[in-house]
Amino acid sequence: LLAHYKIIHLLKPFSSYECCEYDCTQTFSNLNSYKRHIDRKHTTKPINSPTPIPVINNLSNNNAENECIYTTQNDSIEINDTISIVSDNSCPVTFENDDILNLDDLINSYHTSAVKFTLSLLDNNNFSRKDVFEIQRKIEKYIIEPVENLITSFTQKAVKEPILLSSFQTIKTAFTNTFNFCNSEFSLNNWLIRNNLFQNVQEFTINEEINLVSDSGEIIYGDKTSKGILLPLHFQFKKTFEQNENLANSLSLYEKLINNSSDQTQIKHFVQGELWKKKILPYQNKIVIPYFMYIDDFEINNPLGSHASVHSISAIYYSFPLTDQSKLVNIYLAALIKAVDIKDFGNDLCLNKLIYQINDLEVNGIVIDTPHGSKKVHFILGLFLGDNLGLNSICEFSKSFSANYFCRFCKADKSLTRHLFKENSLLLRNSINYAEDVRVNDSKQTGVYKESILNKIISFHVTSNYSVDLMHDTFEGICHYNMCHIINYYTDDVKIFSLELLNYRKQNFNYGPIEIGNISPIIKQAHLKNFHLKMSAREMMTFVFYFSLMVGDLIPEDDTIWVFFLNFLEIIEILLSSQFSNGSILHLQRLIEKHNSEYVSLFKDTLKPKHHLLVHYPTVIKNSGPPKHFWCFRFEAKHKEMKLYAHSITSRKNIPLSLAKKFQYKYAYQILNSNPMIINEINTNEIYIKSSNYNELVLRVLNLTSDQFLCYSQIQFKGTTYKIGYFLTRFIEEVCLYEILEIIIVKASFKVQFIVQQIEIDFFNSHLRAYQVNKSKSIILKTILTPDTCNGPPVNINESVSGNLMLRNINMDDSVNEFNYSIADLTNNHSIMNINSSQIAKIICDNNSSQNFTTPPLHSPFSDLHYDEELMNLLIEWNLESVYTTCIEKQIDLEALQFMQDHHFPMVLSNFSPGIQIKFEYRVKKYQQSLTINKESPTLNNNLSIVQNITTSEPDSENISSYLYDKDLTWPEIEDIYRKTINFRLNFIKENNAVEIFKKWNHYTMPMGYKLVDIDFLSLYPDNSNFNLIFEESCNKLIEVLKERVKDPANRQTLTTFNNTLNDLTTDSKVLVIMYLLHCVFIPSSKKSTRDENGRKGFTKYSIRDSQNSFIIVKPTSVDMESTLQKMSEMGAIQPCILVIGTLFDPKQI
């Protein structure tokens, strides 16, 4: 109150005071005497009696504004009350609590912002701690001090009101002390600790000894202590899962994954693997969360300098597989130890403290405080990750990969691994034989140095650490050996292309905007000689994926080395899948066996250690899930942060401690800065905001008006850039391609949506292992997708050398891979796909029996578990496959179709349009008529004299042939079964009709069926050569015959063009042109009898052109071909013919 008098009413020393308490009218000349009077006379008063405020008279100024006439109030004034000070008119100031400016809160917020600014500088890897506090000093000197002087000068001259003057002084003081909470490392740490954002690291002693040390340049004996740094794991785990609903989100994902893994058909995450299910057995009905740890050395000095490897650091990171591990902020530091200390003193002394914390996290767990209450969570170590040397070292296996027993998964010796094509389960390491190896204590005979300290972790054993690194094993290992052999073969052995041409095409290849930063340097002969290309893992990945588009047009089909490359490419694609089924794991195992076998036989080389590790990948996937979820790419990127910071500081005295402190400040900054957009992992920039052109589509699909979402041309979502013009893929029965038109973010939920248009894909080119996109990018539809419904990040559309738009889809989930390798089996993995739709339907149906597609289509003919191949073939022939699902649901098969009557059709197709019903009824009646004419096919007994002298069937051939029903068989396996059952099959052919033959031996009908015919033919006539070889040898003779016999002008012109371009044509094109022109030699002589409208009989004679066009049908695109076939099918059954997409001289597909 006294302060109020002095500030608001400008009281002076000579002011007088009059007491108005309970009619007391005594006056006083100063405040002290008035205060004594109040204490003496009026200290007791009735409760709740009104208390008049005294009248104050300022003798120097008797203006009414300096007088305060009393008003009554209670003894206690609530903080929300309105206090009025009244004079003759009214007291000049009226305060209401809501309008009061709370300077203390604002100043505290200002100082907190200064802390955030300081932490943001410390978060920058290019600034040392010393740099940051030096920046503070510069800001104080060059910014804060001038502003402080400005405020002082302004208030002295322009502000006369005491209360405003006082407020300005407070603001000035706060501004002067901007970095009050963080002006030193000590004060910053204290502020962070008070706000529960920081905990000191633990320095632990590894070794302490008396040794020669340098003291001020003098060498003396003293204590030499080796120390490691352990970060506060309990604190970090707790804070991580208390932020941004991380615990709730992780548990929600965990529950979803566990519930979806009950059928054991899909593995898309570590927690669905066999290893995790064993680890959690002791923790039933408890909350458990897995985490991975990773160990690796990194060099902080110049690797080419004089101090290289002197200060090498072993970093141990950890991450949580239930969070997004692709973001570096979700990879955390656990410990830092000098590499030389681990080498000198061993793993036990260096890791003992860490092991104790790991066990405590598992056994005792941590209480996590959430908005929904506190929950106790047990954190269990899932895997220890690293490269092969790092894992072998920390697990105490052989550190040399030229040792007799280098493998940490099995006990195969070095000589065996060089020719071991598949995993031998009898040789796998386990806890029993591991204990025996430890007891033997002979690393040369066992590959085990000693018992690993990691075995002290409660739910961990080094023999069950099913961890591999796809990056080091494949892209920094196998790819180098394979690609060098392949390039050497094509440039030196067969000379299909030169190294200069390969480099030219590689450097000028259209990589697209996404992969443009991963172009590798040129390949030199020395690189090929040393079997090591000068490429990073990421550059090698790009090179291998686009190699087929770079040179595939130069490689002939059926080339053995090219088939090997495509097989290897398929292995990589499968390993990069986001989910696996039992079928795809089995298929991968077969591909790896084939790859390793062919590597040895084709290149006359032995398998390298990384080739051997590849045979263990199927087992690792079964236990730990997709290997891309625990590869080293992101952990290696985390090293970069440490290296950058190490380069910004000059001290090397205790570099692990400096790096650990840096990480703690980065972690505090990460926790302190969070908002809904960051929680949803969305990064945007206002410059990319635009107005939407698809408001009607958004309203119709999402029911959102234009003010309920923001439209962007580019965003970052979960670390991935999406922008207009990028392409996304999705698998719905087949690979679908979408182009991003706009990106929208829903304001209420911060959900990302993509407005896209679907682009037509023409076909899958298995020779290039790529999809050919429609050149005009024909649009199928416009729709809206979410990131979750897409198969991974954006992809490129690349223009091939021939000018075609190709899609090398590397974002394949398991369903895409199973679809592709099923198609590949039918096309022998290397010929351009030419397969009828019924076979594709069968493949898709078989895959659907074990796959759950994201968006099953309405009336999908491929979504049933039961598959009726005959019915499907018939419906496809009628172009009515859309009714297949309805037929199956209502148990309509071929037998039911025979007996259908008019009243049955509405019962079956009540949900379909009248057009479909009319077509279906017409086709069924035609089908019934055809059955009455000829109910069964004639047998082949009289026409197969070649099988009259067949010997007895092979032993157990019936059982062997039953394996053909396995849809996962590769084509070489199919051929092998056919060779082992030749007599059994030929006897079957002798005794059955064509329908039964093709039903049991359906592989004859597949595109590679001609190879099976060759097997039978060569068995019957072993002395006769293959027709293909004879034809190739006879080509020159045929050309000479054509020159003599072709007379008509049109075909003569074709022959002239053929002769002029003969050296430039492919083998396929040569054969096509010759077979086309042979119709001029074998002139058609048949006639067709016809009758005109008057009934008069006539004859139609076919020309050479008619004969040619009925034998070889040429269309520029697959769309045109489909239209032609549709018209031909309406006129009756299509006779055998050759279909060519492109031209005779440039066939794209046959």
Q: Kindly report the average pLDDT value.
A: 80
Residue share in β-strands: 15-25%
Helix content: 40-55%
**What is the 3D shape?**
globular
* Coarse structural class: alpha+beta
Biggest sheet, open or closed, and with what strands and sense?
7 strands, mixed
Number of strands: 32
Oligomer: single chain
Strand order of the largest sheet: 6-7-11-10-9-13-12
How many distinct helices?
44
Number of domains: 8
Domain C2H2-type: 17-47
Keywords: Metal-binding, Zinc, Zinc-finger
GO molecular function: zinc ion binding
Organism: Aphis craccivora (Cowpea aphid)
SSE blueprint:
Elements: H1 2-8, E1 16-18, E2 27-28, H2 31-41, E3 55-57, E4 83-84, E5 94-95, H3 103-123, H4 129-158, H5 162-176, H6 185-194, E6 202-215, E7 218-230, H7 233-242, H8 246-260, E8 266-267, H9 274-279, E9 287-298, E10 313-319, E11 331-338, H10 339-363, E12 366-370, E13 373-385, H11 388-394, H12 414-417, H13 431-440, H14 443-446, H15 470-493, H16 499-507, H17 512-515, H18 525-530, H19 537-551, H20 560-575, E14 580-581, H21 582-603, H22 609-614, H23 617-624, H24 633-648, H25 655-672, H26 676-679, E15 682-683, E16 689-690, H27 695-702, E17 709-712, E18 714-717, E19 720-723, E20 727-732, E21 734-746, E22 752-759, E23 761-765, E24 770-773, E25 779-785, E26 798-799, E27 805-807, H28 814-826, H29 837-848, H30 869-877, H31 884-889, H32 894-898, H33 905-908, H34 914-933, H35 957-962, H36 971-980, H37 982-991, H38 994-1000, H39 1009-1020, H40 1027-1045, H41 1049-1060, H42 1067-1077, E28 1087-1091, E29 1097-1101, H43 1104-1111, E30 1112-1115, H44 1118-1130, E31 1138-1142, E32 1147-1149
Parallel strand pairs: 9-13, 30-31
Antiparallel strand pairs: 1-2, 1-3, 4-5, 6-7, 7-11, 8-14, 9-10, 10-11, 12-13, 15-18, 16-17, 17-21, 18-19, 20-21, 21-22, 22-25, 23-24, 24-27, 26-27, 28-29, 31-32
Helix pairs in contact: 3-5, 3-25, 4-5, 15-19, 15-20, 20-21, 21-23, 28-29, 29-30
Domain C2H2-type: 17-47
Keywords: Metal-binding, Zinc, Zinc-finger
GO molecular function, one term: zinc ion binding
